[in-house]
Structure formats: C-alpha cells, structure tokens
Amino acid sequence: MKSKFNFLKSILYFIPFTLILYILFVCLGGYVFPTGILKNLIYQLGGTGYLYTRLQEVKQTKNVDILFVGSSLTYRSYDTRIFKKNGYSTFNLGSSSQTPLQTKILMERYLDSLNPKTIIYEVNPETFSSDGIESTLDLIANDNLDKKIFDLAIKQNHIKVYNALIYSFCRIIFYNNYNFKENIRKGNDTYISGGFVQKDLAYFKDTFTTKIDWKMNKSQNIAFERVINKIRKKGVKLLLVQAPIIQQYNNSEQFDTKMLSYGDYYNFNKILPLNDSLFFYDNFHLNQNGVKIYNEFFIENYLKK
Asked: b vs e for 78-89, b when ≥16 Cβ sit within 10 Å of the residue's Cβ?
C-alpha cells in the first residue's frame, strides 16, 4: 500500500516538473532556432501579411465608411488609396488565411471603434473548409492574448496553437515586443496605410489549374453565422463578396447558393471575368493592374448606385 502511495506521489511531482521543462523548451527553442526549424512552433511577428502593423494602425482608426474583412484576398484585392480617391474612408482588416473563426474575434475587438457604414466581407470556399490553424497562429503572434484567443485555442485543440501561446507569453515577459517595428517594405510587398498590401507588378505564367474540392467546416459555419448576426444587430450594411481569382472549385454553385441565403452576395468571378495572364500574379491574387480595374468597377457599380 505504501509503495503505491509513493508511486502516485512521484507521478504528481513528475507532472508539474515535466510541464515546466516543456514550457522552458518551447520558450528557449523559439528564441534560439529560426522560424520553421521547429515543426510545431510557428511564431511570425509581422508575418507575410503585415498583421502586426495593420493591428497597430486599426487601434488608432475610428469611424470609417467601409470595413473590409477576410483572407489575403481582402488585403491584396481592395486598395484603400483607390477608395479614398473616390471619397470613401476605409480600413482593410484582412489577414493571411483568415477564416470566420478569426473574423469573429477581430470583429469583437474592433467593430465598435471602426463603426463602419458598410462591411465588405470577402468569402470563398477555401476559408470555409479550412481548420483555421494558420490564421490563429498569425493572430496569436500579432494581437492581444485574451479570453477570446484562449477559447479559440481550446476549440481548435492543436499543438501548434498551444506552443504559439506559450511562446507568445514568453516574448511578452522576456523579449518585449513593444520595441518591434515592422518594415513597410518586405521583398516584393509594400504596406499601404489602411491595411492594403501592394505587390510589385508581376504576371501569372502558369494558367493551368485544376478544380479544388471543398467541404464546409462546421465550426467555420457557426462562427460565420455569429459574425453575420453581430453585423445585423449593429445595423451595418453588409456585402458578401467573392473577389476575382483564377482557382476554381468543385460545387461552387453550392457555395454561391449558401452565401446568397445570407443576403447581398456577389461572385465577381462570374460578374467581372479578367484575363489570367494580364491581371493576376498567382492563381488566387490580382496584380496591381487587376486590383485597379476590379476596385474601380466595384465602386462604380456597387457603391455609387
């Protein structure tokens, strides 16, 4: 009996000791090794989508005419300068691979202060079928750690998310992210005030793509409906939009039908066909020439009516 008691006692001592060692390993590993070396620890302050800079700017922004939300198709498809030229104050709150799970958190944090008259929500089948892990990691590295992000971490229950949370806490305590300043120019990208990211002019070479299968993720659907309800309660005009892309999906009509059931929805792949090799730089994103044509068409036909 005594031996069993000692064994259980040893286990109880071992568990917190192991947990402490694990936390130390994550903190030191993230600090010592470059991003990408540790497979299950991904932490990109700033990242490819300039989320850190965008979220620093949004905290200083209030009362806009138009708010854009969604994935990289948002922050690479809606140029805040073009809308400003046409008399609209805007903010682009898109982020890389943003799914409804992250849109919900961003809207809860910033919708009231931005107080938009219109929300343009970029939707596409891929973000609705995603698990959303990539975008959660982006959010953990570049925004506040609060109950909302912890609830999402528990919902997703993924080792990469837990590790990112641990390392993010370590950085807050020891490394002081407040001294971080993101370069507005990275590689071929330039951050434009208001949240847009402009890529140097390039053209898509490989015009052959295959159709992608997609399946609605239940968690994404629930989060999406909660976002829609929040917008409706606030009385903001909502436009659901699928920006022009080259990539095609199987059963795209099913997605269109579902989006139409929520209100005003426009699939610009059907409304505004654009030449693949002239107006895109990859199979998902418009180049700057395409952005200009798309934005001016959108403003003239869907905002000035």
From this structure: bbbebbeeeebb
Which three-class secondary structure state does DSSP give residue 227? helix
Q: Report the first-to-last Cα separation within the chain, whole angstroms.
A: 82
Q: In what order do the strands lie in the sheet with 237-242?
A: 90-92, 66-69, 118-122, 237-242, 265-267
Full-model pTM: 0.90
68 — alpha (psi -120 to 50), left (phi > 0) or beta?
A: beta
Residue listed under structure tokens 């059963």: 251
pLDDT tens digit sequence for 235-292 = 999 999 999 998 888 888 999 999 999 999 999 999 998 888 899 998 889 999 999 9
> What gap in Å lies between CA 271 and CA 36, rounded to an integer?
40
79 touches 196 (CB < 8 A):
yes
pLDDT per residue over 17-56, tens digit each? 567 676 666 677 777 666 666 788 888 888 889 999 999 9
Residues, the chain = 305
State whether the Cα torsion 178-181-186-190 is positive or negative.
Answer: positive
Structure tokens at 82: 């073009």
Residue 162 CB burial class (10 angstroms; 0-12, 13-18, ≥19): middle
Strands (E), the chain: 66-69, 90-92, 118-122, 185-186, 189-192, 196-199, 237-242, 265-267
